[in-house]
């Protein structure tokens, strides 16, 4: 069974940046990122294909995030810039994505991102 582990979260001031990483226990296609803020439903953020050349973004974040892949390390990266307090959420890694944004059966435990105003 695929295991996914997120890293790189934490506390950042508004306008700052964070880079999240998701490492899989083995190579997998189509890794995605989702987030869930308190009292809200989980929502899609971005996804990257196995090669790293194919990407998918949510409309709400596409101007501020970049997703990439390091296939040698089975790792997907999510670079987030110009963060806002509304970006505060638990961010989850998921695979394999049913392209472009439908979650697959495997989830990471999630990692907290908090953006202070």
Secondary-structure element sequence? EEEEEEEEEEE
Give the helix tally. 0
- Kindly state the percentage of residues in helix: under 10%
Principal-axes geometry comes out as globular
Can you describe this structure?
This protein has 117 residues and is an all-beta fold. It contains no helices and eleven strands. The strands form two sheets. Strands 2, 4, 5, 6, 9, 10 and 11 form a seven-stranded mixed β-sheet that branches. It has a four-stranded antiparallel β-sheet with strand order 1-3-8-7, with no helix packed on it. A hairpin with a 6-residue loop joins strand 5 and strand 6. It is globular. The model has no long low-confidence stretch (mean pLDDT 95).
Write the layout of secondary structure elements.
Blueprint: E1 4-7, E2 10-13, E3 18-24, E4 31-36, E5 43-48, E6 55-57, E7 65-70, E8 75-80, E9 89-95, E10 106-107, E11 111-116
Parallel strand pairs: 2-11
Antiparallel strand pairs: 1-3, 3-8, 4-5, 4-9, 5-6, 7-8, 9-10, 9-11
Summarize the structure.
The chain has 117 residues and is mainly β. It contains no helices and eleven strands.
Q: Any key phrases for this structure?
A:
seven-stranded mixed sheet; 11 strands; 117 residues; mainly beta
């Amino acid at each position: 069974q695929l295991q996914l582990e997120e890293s790189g979260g934490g506390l950042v001031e508004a306008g700052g940046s964070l880079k999240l990483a998701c490492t899989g226990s083995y190579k997998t296609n189509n890794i995605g990122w989702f987030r869930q803020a308190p009292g809200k439903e989980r929502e899609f953020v971005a996804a990257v294909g196995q090669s790293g050349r194919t990407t998918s973004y949510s409309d709400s974040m596409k101007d501020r995030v970049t997703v990439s892949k390091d296939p040698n390390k089975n790792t997907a990266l999510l670079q987030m810039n110009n963060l806002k307090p509304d970006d505060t959420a638990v961010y989850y890694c998921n695979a394999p994505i049913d392209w472009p944004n439908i979650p697959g059966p495997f989830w990471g435990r999630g990692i907290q991102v908090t953006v202070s105003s």
